[in-house]
Amino acid sequence: MADLRAGGCLCGHARFEINITDSKTGTCHCRDCQKHSSAPFAIFTTVDHGAFRWLVKPQGIAKSSERAIRRFCEKCGSPLSWEGLEFPDEISVNTATFDDVSNIMPVYELYVRTRMAGIEPIKGARQYEAGGAY
User: Fold this and answer.
1) How many of the other CB atoms lie within 10 Å of CB of 90?
2) Which among 4, 72, 86, 101 is least surrounded, fewest beta carbons within 10 Å?
3) Structural domains counted in the chain
4) Residue 131: which pLDDT band, with cuts at 50, 70 and 90?
5) 45 and 95 in contact (C-beta within 8 Å)?
6) Is the pTM of this model over 0.85?
7) More confident of the two residues 36 and 45
8) 30 CB-near residues (< 8 Å, 6+ apart)
9) Could you say which DSSP state residue 21 is in?
């Protein structure tokens, strides 16, 4: 049975649908994600492109590195997705932008070498010093 979720930005302009049935959710503690989200880490749910669709695609695009494109709402600034150029068949969506975040637990943590002090590892989540084969 499919686990379909809807989501979007803070102002409601950008909207999406995502099937998280075969997804992987994790945190990223890299400095880019910390700065982009203005938080100690970002939480992403990654799915194949076929399990995701924009209902209203955000027009904001940021390239903080040569590795990825980050999409955000141009009206309210909410960060929405990370699209890695090394992973053209996948999209990582900011999990906090889902309308319903129930029963979603991170199973991995990336770039824990730059984890901020006081942030404990998630119990049971695989830990990667840098990126990893999550």
Assistant:
1) 17
2) 86
3) 1
4) confident
5) yes
6) yes
7) 45
8) 110, 111, 114
9) T
Residue 73 has pLDDT above 90, yes or no: yes
Widest CA span of the chain, in angstroms?
40
Query: Is residue 112 within 8 Å of residue 29, measured between CB atoms?
Result: yes
Check: CB of residue 46 under 8 Å from CB of residue 24.
Answer: yes
The answer to whether residue 134 sits within a structural domain is no
Question: Per the domain annotation, does 117 fall within a domain?
Answer: yes
> Residue 107 is part of a domain; what is its CATH number?
2.170.150.70
Tell me, yes or no, whether 36 lies in a domain: yes
Residue (of 101, 86, 78, 76) closest to 23 by Cα position: 101
CA angle 130, 92, 57 (to 5 degrees): 145
Cα separation, 59 vs 68, whole angstroms: 16
Q: Are 37 and 47 in contact (CB under 8 A)?
A: no
Query: Which of 46, 3, 5 is CA-nearest to residue 21?
Result: 3
Sign of the dihedral through C-alpha 117, 113, 30, 46: negative
Which residues are bridge partners to 4 per DSSP?
A: 19
Dihedral pair phi/psi, residue 61, rounded to 5°: -130, 130
Please check whether residue 23 lies inside any domain of the structure: yes
